[in-house]
Design a protein that fits this description.
Layout lengths: L20 H8 L3 E5 L2 E4 L1 H20 L3 E2 L5 E3 H7 L1 H4 L5 E4 L5 E4 L4 H11 L8 E10 L14 E11 L2 H21 L4 E5 L9 E8 L5 E6 L19 H8 L3 E3 L5 H7 L5 E16 L1 H5 L3 E3 L5 E3 L1 E8 H11 L1 E2 L2 E2 L10 E5 L5 H16 L4 E4 L5 H11 L3 E5 L1 H5 L3 E5 L5 E4 L1 H8 L1
Parallel strand pairs: 3-7, 19-20, 19-21
Antiparallel strand pairs: 1-2, 4-6, 5-6, 7-8, 8-16, 9-10, 10-13, 11-12, 11-13, 13-16, 14-15, 17-18, 21-22, 22-23
Helix pairs in contact: 1-10, 2-6, 2-10, 11-14
The structure holds adenosine-5'-triphosphate and magnesium ion (3 copies).
């Protein structure tokens, strides 16, 4: 992509409405545009990152055996009356009427709708286990939308729903999601710690929140420092094998949100020098809720003995759009964003330090063509900005690798390669730079 042809409305000034660094940087880097409180348009740079994050979430759900579908954003109020949540959900739910005065709502979550789909088709335990997910926009009329995409009103969520014959089988499904979440967040360069959590309006008796530690987070958390060093299962993890050893390893080290924190246990179990009380960002949550929805909504299957039984369910959310904020909170410096490679909007940027200089232009074009031919995602800064402005913009938008090409270096046959994560710089030939990046 040529920057001269791209749409990257970088802001020079710090937007004053932004209270935290990720919100500030997303606005300054031209990633999002607020259209109403908590409602954002995703501009090209932000949209590229959103898609990358979404794809990692999708790949790890698929790997665990979950199946993707897509449910609508609008739902019938009557469906929510069946579960009893239409009235219980309160003002966070956006209620809408169509021209026939039929009551609808913009889905804040999809337990009811997926249960309706399930009960329409699945009649026997032989079709189980089943885990269905979608990645879809949600609306919650948050009392205080803030921090940009971190607490939006319209936001993108991955939500999965598991269906099993009994509690033991449902726990197997829960464990699969637990492992898939460990892998998902690690692939994005995040340390997201599973913590025992309250179940809230979803209901149920078993839940973990996945939390990224950050001073700007909205949840208070208590952890044993050791949890930060636990190993994340590799790509070769066998989801059909017994995953309980992995779950045991992660859940036997103290980590809890303030809602369920047990001070006495914390002090007894965790040596003083390992106790951490800090804040964090909830990037995902998993629930086992048993027969809460299946009983209310009559989602029954014929069991092995022919008797109809309500299925045991769980639901599993990931805040896809919130993750952009969480990643930036974890990966930035004073100059801007430092994207982990897996989610970066482009992998490499080429900075032409003297646009209009025939030799420099030619070298940049050649490098741009070579990298593009090798399928490296490149943003080529071919604008006529001065070098200082190009450096600042490249650091701000956080592309992991910058190749700087100017007349001086080029006279010796060299370019400069800079790694954004730690600022390390190296002088090398353009050919070596290509070899390094493919
Ligand atoms: P929170 O405690 O932050 O309000 P929640 O517990 O209400 O979140 P869940 O119902 O568990 O949210 O939804 C699953 C995931 O969706 C959350 O873990 C979070 O990452 C994301 N999420 C929830 N609310 C928002 C929001 N208003 N904006 C962006 N992401 C959100
Ligand atoms: Mg909430
Ligand atoms: Mg929460
Ligand atoms: Mg939650």
């Amino acid at each position: 992509m040529r920057l001269s042809r791209f749409f990257l409305p970088i802001l020079k000034e710090n937007p004053k409405e932004a209270e935290i660094v990720s919100h500030r940087l997303m606005l300054r880097a031209g990633m999002i545009r607020q259209e109403a409180a908590g409602i954002y348009a995703w501009l090209p740079l932000g949209f590229r990152v959103l898609k990358k994050i979404e794809q990692i979430v999708r790949e790890e759900q698929d790997r665990s055996g979950a199946l993707e579908l897509l449910m609508p954003t609008l739902q019938l109020a009557d469906l929510w009356r069946e579960s009893g949540r239409y009235d219980a959900y309160g003002p966070e739910m956006l209620r809408i009427a169509d021209r026939h005065k039929r009551e609808l709502l913009y889905g804040p979550t999809n337990e009811e709708m997926i249960t309706e789909i399930f009960r329409a088709y699945v009649k026997s335990y032989k079709s189980l286990p089943l885990n269905l997910y979608h990645i879809q926009w949600k609306f919650r009329d948050e009392q205080r939308p803030r921090f940009g995409v971190m607490r939006g009103r319209e936001f993108l969520m991955k939500d999965a729903y598991s269906f099993d014959l009994n509690e033991a089988a449902a726990r197997v499904a829960y464990n699969k999601m637990f492992v898939a979440y460990l892998r998902t967040f690690a692939r994005m360069g995040l340390k997201a710690i599973p913590m025992r959590a309250e179940t809230g309006p979803i209901g149920g008796d078993l839940s973990h929140e996945f939390i990224v530690l950050a001073e700007t987070g909205e949840s208070g958390v208590f952890i044993n420092r050791d949890v930060l060093d636990l190993p994340v299962p590799g790509e070769d993890v066998d989801y059909e094998s017994d995953l309980t050893p992995i779950i045991k390893q992660w859940t036997s080290v103290y980590a809890a949100t303030e809602d369920v924190h047990d001070a006495a246990r914390f002090e007894q179990e965790v040596p003083a020098d390992k106790r951490v009380n800090t804040r964090g960002i909830e990037v995902g949550q998993i629930f086992y809720f048993g027969t809460k929805y299946s009983e209310a909504m009559k989602a029954l299957v014929a069991g092995p003995h022919g008797v109809d039984v309500p299925i045991h369910g769980g639901s599993y959310g990931v805040g896809v759009s919130r993750l952009l904020g969480a990643i930036i909170e974890a990966c930035h410096d004073d100059a801007g964003i430092k994207w982990p490679e897996a989610v970066a909007p482009f992998r490499v940027s080429i900075l032409n330090l003297k646009q209009g200089d025939a030799a420099v232009d030619a070298a940049c074009e050649k490098l741009y063509a070579e990298l593009s031919a090798k399928c490296v995602d490149v943003l080529y800064d071919d604008t006529d900005q001065r070098a200082g402005a190009k450096f600042a913009a490249a650091d701000l938008i956080g592309i992991p690798w910058q190749i700087m090409i100017g007349p001086k270096g080029l006279a010796d046959g060299n370019v400069e390669l800079k790694r954004r994560s730690d600022g390390a710089r190296e002088i090398m030939s353009p050919a070596d730079a290509v070899a390094r990046l493919v």
